[in-house]
Amino acid sequence: MEVDKIISRKIISASVSGSLFAILLGLIVPNPFGEAITSVPNYLFAVVLATPVYLMYSFPAILIYGVLTSIISDKIGQFVSIKIENGKSEIIMSGILHVVFGLVLLFYSLGASILFFITDRVLQKNNKNYKLIQAIKSLAIPLSVWLIFMGIVYIEHLLNVN
User: What are the pLDDT digits (tens) for 64-100?
Assistant: First the structure.
């Protein structure tokens, strides 16, 4: 039962942090190819266009790699805190390991791992018993973000065709 709750919480964390990561990355790096953005409407359209692409590539990695490494980080943090008999060392060790595992792709994955860590800690602090059905339902978050942004791209395309 305990493992189901942890995995469920981690999947929910991945859904929330993965969606936030794609949106933030779209806002920060709206044009990954470095072309000049000359106006606010061009910037906004670049953000809307880049976000679903970022989500499509980052979310599966955050879901699989992020959940696995977060569980490993938390378990090692728990082990260390028990060994040195200091409860605060668990969150510190877990945070450090999230950063270390997040350095795989340097700044991009580091940002994702920090978002994941913060999201997971907020969910953990709520002390809810997250169930697998809630985790599965949480996958609607990144799907909704993708559909909304792609819908905006589609509408913009329709408006520019006429």
Answer: 999 999 999 989 988 888 888 777 788 888 888 888 8
Reduced to 3 states, what is the DSSP secondary structure of residue 51? Answer: helix
Length of the chain: 162
**Number of Cβ atoms within 10 Å of the Cβ of 84:** 11
CA gap 155, 157 in Å, rounded: 5
Angle between helices 40-61 and 140-161 (to 10 degrees): 150
Is residue 72 within 8 A of residue 97, CB to CB? The reply is yes
Nearest Cα to Cα of residue 117 among 152, 162, 57, 77: 77
Is pLDDT above 70 for 52?
A: yes
